[in-house]
From TrEMBL:
Residues 235-440 form the Orotidine 5'-phosphate decarboxylase domain. HAMAP family: PyrE. The lineage of its organism: Bacteria, Pseudomonadati, Bacteroidota, Flavobacteriia, Flavobacteriales. This is Orotate phosphoribosyltransferase. It comes from Chryseobacterium fistulae. InterPro entries: Aldolase_TIM, OMPdecase, OMPdeCOase_dom, OPRT, Or_phspho_trans_dom, PRTase-like, PRTase_dom, RibuloseP-bd_barrel. Orotate binds at T121, R149. It comes from the Bacteria.
Length: 459
């Protein structure tokens, strides 16, 4: 076998460690991220890894071998194949039916089991796993770990009397990568500072300004939105989720001067009449210079969407400047919106939404490639070539008890690089919607200006 260092570099090529800015499960921001699952996809590496791990261990001590689910399962399997030590499988959760077993496989009470883990950080999840294995009357004395993040896990387990064998630790990994020109001395120093529990500053990428975006966008609706934003010093879209024409028009009159667009759900207006609802609304939009965004969230095949867009009582095509649409119907389902701008729903703000990261990734492909699309609704960042609209913004609340989850303007501009905030109840439910709109407009604009000024503070 090649040297341990060469072996690490081969593993590294599979993308198991990334450097940058990552939010860990605990919410802590880390300058590096480790994911060893790719190792299982390279049979030669997995086999070598198994042998490196076995070499470190007093193999006679073990009757069984068990991986901590899931990343360590292939590793434990490979070690079992190389050493002929029998494998047992620990479930993540006990089955809710049948045997309710937590450990699968053949074993006897009192046998000693070697635990295999991919990465150890604080060690807390290993402590839990060990106690679950011990509850089945299986003994654990040794744990073998591929990579130690050196954040106290080894010490925690050793203080409880377990032997912890680690193949790599993050310090030696950083040294290897520095020697190989993958990391600079400064980057390694920051990682050490982080591991020692010191606060480290992250370099924030500066966001594009509205002026810069105005130069790059193609769609006329994107241009108009950015021009209004700059003219009014506002990035606020008020969501008019009211249910009568009178309330809708009254709200538009009050908040109109302070917003870039008024977002409607036109199908919740109980007394809708094109003449009485839309005509005066159009007049207000011209008077106060804001666009109309119909939040229809189309989600059907192209033909049906076209009918929903152009027919019925609402005739959205005649008055909306831009509309929202799901992209679940695929690329061509958006073709019918060729006289308006489309804001694609990439990710939703509600708890338990099905817009998972893999969905968002696919949704973004359509969003970025369709010429009718001007931007996306999302709770995470999207590429800067399109506009990001972020609902779920409220200064006073963190949720509404119905699944809505709120963020502050500061978070959405600084962290997500949003372009426009969408505020509903924060404005129309307020005692004074005009004052509320002014305060959201100012908060939003200040947060945007602040997000432009983030200065790199590498130390
Ligand atoms: O993910 C989303 C997408 C949208 S468009 N989450 C949302 O809340 N919205 C809309 O934004 C929602 O339909 C509502 O009209 C508005 C948020 O209203 P609020 O009262 O919670 O601010």
């Amino acid at each position: 076998m090649e040297s341990k260092k060469e072996f690490f570099l081969e593993c590294y090529k599979l993308g198991i460690i990334k450097f940058g800015r990552f939010t860990l499960k605990s919410g802590i921001e880390s300058p590096f991220y480790v994911d060893l699952r790719p190792l299982a996809s390279d049979p030669k590496i997995l086999k070598n890894l198994a042998n490196y791990l076995l070499e470190m261990l007093p193999l006679d001590n073990f009757d069984l071998i068990c991986g901590v689910p899931y990343a360590a399962l292939p590793m434990a399997t490979a070690m079992s194949l190389e050493s002929y030590i029998p494998l047992i499988i620990k479930r993540k959760e006990a089955k809710s039916y049948g045997t309710k077993k937590l450990i699968e496989g053949i074993y006897q009470k009192g046998q000693n089991c070697l635990l295999v883990e991919d990465v150890i950080t604080s060690g807390k999840s290993l402590v839990e796993t060990i106690s679950e294995v011990e509850q089945e009357d299986i003994k654990v004395s040794d744990i073998v770990v591929v990579l130690d993040r050196e954040q106290g896990g080894k010490q925690l387990l050793e203080s409880k009397g377990y032997r912890v064998h680690t193949l790599f630790n993050i310090s030696e990994v950083c040294d290897i990568l520095q020697e190989n020109g993958e990391l600079t001395e400064n980057e390694v120093k920051r990682i050490h500072d982080f591991l020692q529990g010191n606060h480290i500053e992250f370099e924030d990428k500066a966001r594009a300004s509205y002026e810069q975006k105005l130069k790059n966008v193609q769609h006329s609706v994107s241009k108009k939105l950015l021009e209004i934003a700059l003219a009014k010093k506002s990035n606020l879209i008020a969501s008019a989720d009211v249910t009568t024409t009178q309330e809708l028009l009254a709200l538009a009159e009050k908040v109109g001067p302070h917003i870039v667009a008024l977002k409607t759900h036109i199908d919740i207006i109980s007394d809708f009449e094109y003449e009485k609802t839309i005509i005066p609304l159009k007049e207000l939009s011209a008077k106060h210079q804001f666009l109309l965004m119909e939040d229809r969230k189309f989600a059907d095949i192209g033909n049906t969407q076209e009918l929903q867009f152009k027919s019925g009582v609402f005739k959205i095509t005649d008055w909306a400047d831009f509309v929202t649409s799901q992209v679940i119907g695929g690329f061509e389902s958006l073709d019918c919106f060729n006289n308006v701008g489309v804001v694609a729903i990439v990710g939703m703000s509600s708890k338990g939404t099905l817009t998972t990261s893999s969905y968002r990734e696919e949704a973004l492909k359509i969003t970025l490639s369709h010429p009718n699309v001007i931007g996306g609704v999302s709770q995470s960042s999207i590429p800067e070539e399109i506009l990001l609209f972020t609902p779920g913004v409220n200064l006073a609340d963190s949720g509404d008890g119905k699944g809505q989850q709120y963020n502050t303007p500061e978070y959405v501009f600084k962290t997500l690089h949003s372009d426009f905030i969408i505020v509903g109840r924060g404005i129309y439910k307020s005692n004074n919607p005009e004052e509320a709109a002014i305060s959201y407009k100012n908060e939003g604009w200040n947060a945007y200006i602040k997000s432009l000024k983030i200065i790199a503070t590498h130390n």
